[in-house]
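Colleagues,

For the teaching module next term, I've prepared a clean inverse folding example: a structure given as tokens, and then the sequence designed for it. I'd like students to try predicting residues themselves before seeing the answer, so please don't circulate the second half yet.
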């Protein structure tokens, strides 16, 4: 039986709003950034004049060139995922008691992707600025293509599930939205969620960050220091992600959220369009910060990315060594929590209650949000839209912390209560 994450009413409301508002929002964000100088007021003025018909007019048709770019990129990433060597990694035990096996070749795929992209630009084979010039069409194609992809996932979940971590909750809409399978595969080895979340979604973030930089260079003949700080911080963040990709396979996205519209659409459409948007904004806003300010922002951003990484590393090291590690120079304090799997087996997990995980139950979200702030702040404060990702991320992570707390409470019962008594705050120590 598929586990639903929110109540059916919240699921319907969020599904309807996601379907109704997110695709137009992606197009409006692109249109405002690229054609209205990043100004919400200008876009608003356009709609006052043109009404709803204005949206149809600006909505780009998914052209052949857009499909070609998406297809070549997707096929290249899929080939790297399948073919590059990597060590064998076992994922966490699933709710049905399975242990999925992965090939950890993300960092190699990341470097091969960036080297290939820069190489084809350098040797004049393909100009990345073309991607920026067709961005609206690409986002439009992704919006429709991902919807079809999610329908196929739903059908696969019914017809040919890859493991016992699958099943229907009996409601078609909820099945489509939250997904049928935890880790669907093509064959034994090609993991679809690793492809959508990591190799397509997260990789597109790095590829587009580089694209925006190259486009600004093409327009102005140089790259502004604000764009450099933004691009470097985003690349450090994505490098950190791929460095730690096998760790990501232990997180909620992979270990708990099923492959449905919510997560797949998010990774295939929202990540390339919204997550990269501070860089998209900077293309037409070559702000000069001056060396000193640029370096301060850069250092602050790298520090936040490092702390975020260290939080994840600490938790995973603690779990990997079964608590036999040092946390901030001492033996970790912990709770031994037992729980029952869906197949009725009793298992135990360790909950770390010292180090970063003793400050708040989801302290790692604080440096995550601050990192995003630091790669956006080079845009300064002319247009609030550049900050949309930071605002969105803050809402997402506060909701996620609640979802995770609810899930862990139902998984660990009295042990989670004990953890909450020991570590009182959910995200911000002393405040929330
Ligand atoms: P994680 O899945 O890594 O951590 C939460 C899980 O860890 C819980 O579900 C629980 O799983 C286990 N856990 C909880 N408390 C403890 C503890 N005290 N000791 C040991 N294990 C514990 O969280 P996220 O997936 O949310 O985050 C992973 C990373 O991804 C973070 O760096 C985050 O900032 C980033 N992120 C970024 C997003 C973005 O859009 N930019 C979105 C979401 C995350 P179990 O069932 O195993 O006990």
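(Answer key — instructors only)
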């Amino acid at each position: 039986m598929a586990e639903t994450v929110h109540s059916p009413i919240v699921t319907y409301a969020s599904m309807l709003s996601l379907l109704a508002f997110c695709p137009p929002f992606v197009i409006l964000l692109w249109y405002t950034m690229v054609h209205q100088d990043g100004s919400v007021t200008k876009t608003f003025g356009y709609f006052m004049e043109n009404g709803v018909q204005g949206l149809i007019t600006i909505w780009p048709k998914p052209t052949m060139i857009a499909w070609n770019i998406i297809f070549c990129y997707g096929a290249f990433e899929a080939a790297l995922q399948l073919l590059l060597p990597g060590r064998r990694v076992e994922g966490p035990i699933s709710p049905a008691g399975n242990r999925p096996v992965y090939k950890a070749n993300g960092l190699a795929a990341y470097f091969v992707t960036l080297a290939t992209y820069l190489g084809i630009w350098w040797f004049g084979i393909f100009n990345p600025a073309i991607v920026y010039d067709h961005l609206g069409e690409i986002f439009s194609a992704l919006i429709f293509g991902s919807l079809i992809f999610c329908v196929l996932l739903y059908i696969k979940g019914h017809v040919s599930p890859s493991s016992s971590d699958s099943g229907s909750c009996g409601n078609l809409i909820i099945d489509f939205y939250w997904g049928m399978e935890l880790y669907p595969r093509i064959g034994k080895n090609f993991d679809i969620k690793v492809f959508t979340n990591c190799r397509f979604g997260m990789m597109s973030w790095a590829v587009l960050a580089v694209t925006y930089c190259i486009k600004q260079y093409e327009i102005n003949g140089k790259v502004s220091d604000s764009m450099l700080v933004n691009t470097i911080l985003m690349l450090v963040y994505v490098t950190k992600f791929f460095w730690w990709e096998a760790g990501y396979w232990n997180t909620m996205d992979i270990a708990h959220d099923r492959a449905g519209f919510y997560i797949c659409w998010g990774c295939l459409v929202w990540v390339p369009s919204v997550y990269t948007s501070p860089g998209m904004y900077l293309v037409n806003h070559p702000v000069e910060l001056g060396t000193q300010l640029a370096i301060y922002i850069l250092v602050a951003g790298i520090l936040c990315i490092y702390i975020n990484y260290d939080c994840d590393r600490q938790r995973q090291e603690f779990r990997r060594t079964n608590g036999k590690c040092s946390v901030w120079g001492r033996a970790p304090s912990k709770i031994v929590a037992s729980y029952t799997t869906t197949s009725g087996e009793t298992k135990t997990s360790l909950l770390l209650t010292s180090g970063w995980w003793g400050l708040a139950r989801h302290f790692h979200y604080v440096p995550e949000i601050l990192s995003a702030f630091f790669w956006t702040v080079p845009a300064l404060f002319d247009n609030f839209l550049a900050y949309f990702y930071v605002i969105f991320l803050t809402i997402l992570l506060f909701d996620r912390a609640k979802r995770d707390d609810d899930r862990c409470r139902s998984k660990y019962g009295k042990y989670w209560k004990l953890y909450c008594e020991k570590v009182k705050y959910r995200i911000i120590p002393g405040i929330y």
